[in-house]
Design brief:
The chain has 5 helices and 5 strands, in the order βααββαβαβα. The protein is α/β, with parallel strands linked by helices. It folds into 2 domains: about 100 residues, NAD(P)-binding Rossmann-like Domain (Rossmann fold, 3-Layer(aba) Sandwich), CATH 3.40.50.720; about 35 residues, no CATH class. The protein has a 5-stranded parallel sheet, covered by helices on one side. The radius of gyration is 17 Å and the shape is globular.
């Protein structure tokens, strides 16, 4: 990846984008990335991916197929702000060596916390689990 701000395409559903990129999150993203196009996309048809180095994705992002990769020759990483990447990362991504990051641990942690609270409330034993939390927003001051 080139030094400076990587060219980043944001791909997610129109319903998810305001929740993930609301408030200061959008400003923080633009501070570290050159976002192109300058708005989230829900699909790749008609989107110029020729300079995209990073795909910042979440729920509603279509699969990154071999055809999409052919249009994104500089794509080096997919950052998935949700759980499992199975729905968007295809074999073509792995074969090309695209790096993939997911917020699955954070999602699992939140789900685990909710289940733990429910289990404690009903005095049901809970299974042991380990998780890593990746904050998607800044901690409250």
């Amino acid at each position: 990846m080139s030094p400076g701000r990587p060219v980043t395409t944001v791909a997610m559903s129109e319903r998810v984008a305001p929740r993930l990129l609301g408030g200061s999150a959008r400003k923080r993203l633009h501070a570290v990335a050159e976002v192109r196009p300058d708005h989230p996309v829900a699909g790749f048809d008609g989107v110029d991916l020729s300079r995209t180095q990073v795909l910042f994705a979440s729920w509603g992002c279509p699969p990154v197929t071999a055809d999409v990769l052919a249009r994104a020759p500089r794509l080096e990483a997919i950052v998935y702000a949700a759980g499992s990447v199975k729905g968007i990362v295809t074999d073509a991504c792995w074969e090309r060596g695209v790096r993939v990051s997911s917020a699955a641990a954070s999602v699992n942690s939140a789900t685990g916390s909710a289940l733990a609270a429910a289990a404690e409330e009903t005095r049901t034993p809970r299974s042991q689990h380990a998780s890593v939390t990746i904050p998607l927003t800044e901690p409250a001051a």
